[in-house]
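Re: that chain you flagged

S.,

Sorry for the slow reply, it's been a week of failed gels. I finally had a moment to sit down with the sequence you sent. For the record, here it is as I used it:
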Amino acid sequence: MASGWISHRGLSKVIAKDASFAVSETGVQRFREDGMAEFKVNKTFTEINRKIRRGEVVVVTAEEMIGVRRDLGAVEAARKVDVVTTGTFGIMCSSGAFLNFGHSRPRIRASKVYLNGVEAYAGIAAVDCYIGATQTREDDPLNKVFPGRFRYGGGHVIEDLVAGREVRLTATSYGTDCYPGRQHEATMTLQDFPDAVLLDPRNAYQNYNCAVNFSKKTIYTYMGILRPECANANFSTSGQLSPLLNDPLYRTIGIGTRIFVGGGVGYVIGAGTQHNPGVKRSANGVVMGGAGTISVRGDLKGMSAKFLRGASLTGYGCSLNVGIGIPIPVLNEEMAMFTSVSDDEIQVPVVDYGYGYPEGGGEPVAYVTYGQLRTGEITLDGKKLPAAPLSSYSAAKEIAVTLKEWISSGQFLLGEPQETLPSVSFDGFQDLQ
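Prediction finished late last night. Pasting the structure tokens below so you have them in one place:
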């Protein structure tokens, strides 16, 4: 039976064809058609935030939750644990920052803006611009001498800013009556910008490919360097710690979810571009390939270069490593099950980037688990090949632990989503114990 979903706030109407709901001080109580309660544990964001304020909240990382559920079972784990923290740190190309560099004398309505030689999009208003993580410097040779090194781009500018380093801003314009300035140059640090907002259209991909190369030449991709004839495999995401893999149906994540981003506090502002919840799923509800994504926002001035690092991908381009952590409230035993998923239970599609992917195909040639990938070796068609991560599991773990400390100390409250991410129906676990 597919589950319906509503928030706890004053709603008592039927919103799904197969379920009815009653609302009490303990949250949403779900009932099946036979009148039996669907969940034995029912908590709300409000209750959990009250526990955080009182210093009574129980928080564990997603890694720790695996053992908690194994030892106690889903129902008791849901009773005991209030929040599970997650983390991921890796290359997220669809990232960037809105910057306002302040009015000059005379005023300028910038039509072109460069930061350390990297162009920022100026088609917004006066002194606003957006710098994308993958934008390269104007003088970069790109792939003219193949493979290009892409040593500096938009992601590096963002890292320089949050690290407190100076950047050189150059703005030009055609001049108007109200904005007569035609050129403005300044050396600035992050604190000199009146506004600096990280705004990423697509982050924290829910699962992703394991990349191999069946062609007879070395190829250079956003998944790293892939040697010919399937000589190596590269993968991404933090598996059992990854945010959306711990809430595979986005029960608790959406517009307004408060998160760790780039070392500071930010928010989910909606589904990210290419969000696709309809991907094939395992029996535990976990997607078997790239699926959900989030769009995020946060104040750059509260972030750290430790969790926002410029990236150079040989032969491909520039990007930005982003650290993201999402706290997931354990509202019921279903969420206890979801947040205790292990690397051995998450399947990853193996995709050929030599032929299929660049031609618009890229159907999986096999599936492996993160448990297998993290041994450093997988077997494909009887052949053993080394496997290497593009994301940092240790950094992801540090993010989850940091977020756990913030919540446990009362510094960080959960943000209840005003609208959850688009999802799909799920028949539920057969036996929640």
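What I noticed first: The chain has three domains: 1-38, 84-93+199-420, 97-139+164-195.

Talk soon,
D.
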